[in-house]
Structures are given as structure tokens and as C-alpha cells.
Write a structure and sequence with these properties.
The protein has helices at about 5-20, 30-40, 60-70, 80-90, 130-140, 165-170, 180-190, 205-225, 235-250; strands spanning about 50-55, 70-75, 100-105, 115-120, 140-155, 190-200, 250-260. The protein is α/β, with parallel strands linked by helices. It has a single domain, classed as Vaccinia Virus protein VP39 (Rossmann fold). Bound molecules: S-adenosylmethionine (SAM).
Length: about 260
């Protein structure tokens, strides 16, 4: 991706989530605390662990981990609005000594080498311009022998090129990659014992409940493409069928992790 194009997409994405925050949304990953717990288990999080939460958004993950595990968490996000909101939530919950939030870009992380027991990121890797660099940055600030782990949307098939829009990129759909390619990012970043597994294979999985939220955005992307004349016009019921099919067949959600050498 060209840098200026990547930077524009990054700006669009940050604004998209800030708008969702204004509308009252605070959780920007599927699976709620169930998936957060799975990610915590993946990195072996325990009481007192010092964790970096990359692209921490409204603070949902960081605050949960501090409450549940008494973990010391640093959340890191590019959006000042998110960082301020998350800091206010931490203060309201009396968690400000355990959880802090810092503004910055994951492509240039300001933390000390080997400072954390683990680094995690929920539903964000597919949004970053240089994914290998980001995983390498996360690995550098984690102790040797400890883990970096992310959960993210994975693609399970091609989506129509007309839907590669900024909107569906921001929704973690257009930038999603197959599980194997996401694991390759960890390998290229120099991590060991890389493993990845899909969380969404099970029909009862909470991901299925998240699909309606994404469904609206897929419908909007279809309608934008038709309005712009780049996608063949179809009636509402056909678009509805295509959107549902796309979400349930072409996407899943997975955890990928690796050990810092
Ligand atoms: C899908 S939300 C996920 C938020 C949180 N992890 C969650 O699960 O609720 C993506 C977040 O990534 C942040 N973000 C996007 N690009 C970033 C970058 N280059 N550096 C740091 N944060 C970034 C956005 O501001 C937004 O809060």
C-alpha cells in the first residue's frame, strides 16, 4: 500500500471509530469478554502481569483485564479522543493506578525494550499499514520467551473488488487476510512457535451475534458502489442475500500468537 493512501485510510479509520464512540459504542471487537479471555489465556496472563494493549480504543479490553486479573495494563491508541475517554473510564472505575492510556501510532512505539510480560491487540491488525513492523514493534517491548498475540478478522475467500472501500476497510473486512498469511506476518516479524486458530468455526460462536452490526456496513458499501456506478444495480432482497452470504462465508475471527525469541 502506498504510504499516502495508507495514511488516508488510517485517518478515515480513526475518525470512523471516533464517530462510533460518539454514538455510544464502546466495544469494537467481536465476541465480547469471551474473546478477550481467550486472548488473555493465549498469552498466559496472570495476576500482576504487565500488558500492552495495542489499539486500545475505548479501553474495553484494558479495563476488563485490570478488573479480572489485576493486570497492570498500558493501552496505546492513535486517537486522542479514545485515549481521553478510556482514561476517564479508568478514573471512574478507580483503576487509574493499574491502567493507563497513551496516545501514539503503533508504527512507532515509545516503550522500553522488554518492558511488558505480553502484548496483545484485539481486532486491529488488519487496519495497520505495515503489519510486520507493528508485530516487530510489539515483540521488541515484550520480554524474551513471552508472547505477542492478536485476535482479528480473517478472510476465507475473495470479496468483490468494488467492496474494497474505506468503509469496509475501517470495519476490518476489506483489509482482512487469510489465517495463514496473518501467521506469516508473525514469522516475518521474527517470532517463534507461531500458532493461529479460528474461533468462529463453531455455529454457537458469539461472532454470529456480531454479524448484524457488520451487515449494515456491508449493505451501505454495496449501495455506495451502485450509486457510484461501479457495481451492478440489484434489488434490496438480492443485496440482502449477498451481504449475509458474504459475512457468513467469507470471514471468520481468529487468534494468532508467537513467542519473542
Ligand atoms: C477496531 S478498533 C479496536 C479497538 C479495541 N481494540 C477494541 O477491541 O475495542 C481499532 C482501533 O485502532 C486504532 N488505530 C487505528 N490505527 C492505529 C495506529 N496506527 N496506531 C494506534 N492505534 C490505531 C483506532 O483509533 C481504534 O481505536
Amino acid at each position: 500500500m502506498e504510504t499516502s493512501e495508507g495514511e488516508e485510510l488510517q485517518e478515515f479509520t480513526v475518525k470512523y471509530y471516533e464517530d462510533q464512540l460518539i454514538k455510544g459504542m464502546e466495544n469494537f471487537h467481536p465476541g465480547g469478554v469471551d474473546y478477550t479471555e481467550k486472548l488473555a489465556k493465549e498469552v498466559g496472563l496472570c495476576e500482576g502481569s504487565r500488558i500492552l494493549d495495542v489499539a486500545s480504543g475505548s479501553g474495553e479490553t484494558a479495563l476488563y483485564l485490570a478488573m479480572k486479573f489485576k493486570a497492570e495494563v498500558v493501552g496505546f491508541d492513535l486517537s486522542e479522543k479514545m485515549v481521553n475517554h478510556a482514561t476517564e473510564r479508568a478514573c471512574n472505575l478507580g483503576l487509574q493506578t493499574l491502567v493507563t492510556f497513551k496516545k501514539g501510532d503503533v508504527h512507532k512505539m515509545p516503550f522500553e525494550r522488554g518492558f511488558f510480560d505480553a502484548a496483545i491487540s484485539e481486532c486491529s491488525l488488519c487496519l495497520f499499514r505495515d503489519k510486520v513492523q507493528v508485530i516487530r514493534n510489539m515483540a521488541q517491548v515484550v520480554k524474551s520467551g513471552h508472547k505477542v498475540a492478536v485476535s482479528d478478522v480473517i478472510s476465507k475467500g475473495e470479496i468483490p473488488k468494488e467492496l474494497h472501500t474505506p468503509l469496509l476497510y475501517a470495519c476490518c473486512l476489506a483489509g482482512a487476510q487469510p489465517l495463514k498469511e496473518t501467521m506469516d506476518i508473525f514469522l516475518k516479524a521474527g517470532l517463534k512457535d507461531v500458532r493461529g486458530y479460528e474461533l468462529t468455526a463453531d455455529i454457537n460462536d458469539p461472532w454470529k451475534q456480531e454479524l448484524p452490526v457488520l451487515y449494515n456496513e456491508v449493505m451501505n458499501a454495496f449501495k455506495d458502489a451502485i450509486r457510484l456506478g461501479v457495481y451492478e444495480a440489484k434489488d434490496e432482497s438480492e443485496l440482502d442475500r449477498l451481504a449475509e452470504q458474504l459475512l457468513s462465508e467469507k470471514f471468520g475471527y481468529a487468534i494468532i500468537s508467537g513467542i519473542v525469541p
